[in-house]
Amino acid sequence: MTKRIISLIIALVIPMAFMLTGCKGGKPLTEQEYLDTLTADVKEYTSAAKELSAIDSTTFTEQAAKARHDKAKDVCGKMEKALDKFADINPPQNYSEKHKTLLKAVENERKFVKASEKLLTSTAIADIEAAKNELETIYNLPTEQNFASVALDIIKELKAAQ
Question: Do the domain assignments include residue 73?
């Protein structure tokens, strides 16, 4: 009985320890697997981002504000889930530094998602102004900190290596 309990604890603790320290289980992806995974995850994020850009932010009725609020919450949730996937990727060894750069850019993109959601769901002028300022800061980031630029550069490099 004691051995079973210890085995169960070990079975639960070890994977959790890896998860908390950021270590990804399993072997690194091949370059082709990495390309395929990045491409699919970027497409998923882009699809959600297109939904965000389609939200009507020009109609100011109470009903339109409620619809915009609900849609923005839903779409921004999809965007966050898509961004989460990049942290789960175990890149090929020769792309580990570039992937770290991508993960930093993902954090900037998260700020974009949060500011966009705030802009589309807030009714207080101060909150809307703060969101606009945050978005402006994000738009002015250098290319090497921009999610789309970093992701596309890695994808281009992987395709060129084929």
Answer: yes
Determine the Cα–Cα distance for residues 44 and 82; give it in Å rounded to an integer: 6
Q: Which domain holds residue 145?
A: 29-160
Residue 6 lies in a domain: no
Distance CA 27, CA 46 (A): 28
Stated pTM of the model: 0.78
Q: What does the pLDDT profile of the chain (162 residues) look like in tens digits?
A: 444 444 334 444 344 333 333 345 579 999 999 999 999 999 999 999 999 989 888 877 788 888 888 999 999 999 999 999 999 999 999 999 999 999 999 999 999 999 999 988 888 889 889 999 999 999 999 999 999 999 999 999 999 998
Give me 33's structure tokens. 């697997």
23-32 CB contacts, 8 Å cutoff, 24+ apart: 24/88, 24/89, 24/90, 25/90, 26/90, 27/90, 28/90, 28/91, 28/92, 28/93, 28/96, 29/89, 29/90, 29/91, 29/92, 30/92, 31/92, 31/95, 31/158, 31/161, 32/162
Domain assignment of residue 20, yes or no: no
Phi and psi at 49, nearest 5°, equal -65, -35
CA distance 120 to 66: 10
